Amino acid sequence: MSIFNNRLILQQLPGCLAWKDNQLKYQGANDNLLQAMQLSRQEELIGLDDFELNLNSHKMNTLFKQQDLLTLQGQTLEIIHSLEEDHHDKAYLLQKSPLRDSNNKVVGLTYHCSAWSQTNLLKLMNQLDKKHQPSEAVAKDYQLDENANPLDLSKRELECLFLMLRGRTAQQTANVLQLSRRTVESYLDNMKNKFGCLNKSELLVKAMMLGYQKHLPKSLLSKDLNKIVKL
Question: If you placed Cys at 179, which of 28, 85, 163, 183 could pair as Cys (CB 3.0 to 4.6 Å)?
């Protein structure tokens, strides 16, 4: 008899893990997630969706559903977020991936949530965004995946846009990215063309309308983001 048991392996994976069908009904979870949901048995979860479980606010469940629907379309999502009761004091990395059958058809999704090490960053970014963005545009979470990039901006363009949306000048952006100011300004000109804008102010408004303020470039995670957002 093999010592490798699928359920035993799943239970030993770090973080909270669950899987849903294409109707967004839970089909299983590891013990970590059951404990986080304050459930004692799989049967209390299986066959229910987030609204039926009613463990979060309607607003949070609506957000989860929007994410799940994108995943069912074949997208893989990576999101940094906080739970409502944590008030940004804790941060989590949420990963959602399509679950496919042997014919490569999407039949559901997998969900994995784990603690994110830069616990104070989400709170700092939220405070900073409130200074530089309209209240309705301030992100509640930040996407790491490339799906939050409808205009297919380059890695450097995304980095520049992230900083400029947070009030950074071309020179400050150049200092953070270790580029020349002229290079940053060339990226800004490229983005104006992609967005169809005449100036930086119009570019930033259109970027927020497309949700770019919610995108956190993965390449910036190798830098000290806590210092960057405090600049």
Answer: 183
Note whether 157 and 217 are same-domain residues: yes
**159 part of a folded domain:** yes
**pLDDT for residue 1:** 45
Q: Percent of the chain scored above 90 by pLDDT?
A: 55
Measured CA to CA, the distance from residue 91 to residue 211 in angstroms comes to 21
Helix, strand, coil % over all residues of the chain, rounded to 5: 50, 15, 35
d(CA 172, CA 178): 10
**What is the phi-psi region of residue 197: left when phi exceeds 0, alpha when psi lies from -120 to 50, beta otherwise?**
beta
Structure tokens at 17: 């893990």
- The CATH number of whichever domain residue 177 belongs to comes to 1.10.10.10
Residue 230's pLDDT band, with cuts at 50, 70 and 90, is low
Q: How open is the CA angle 120-126-130, to the nearest 5 degrees?
A: 150
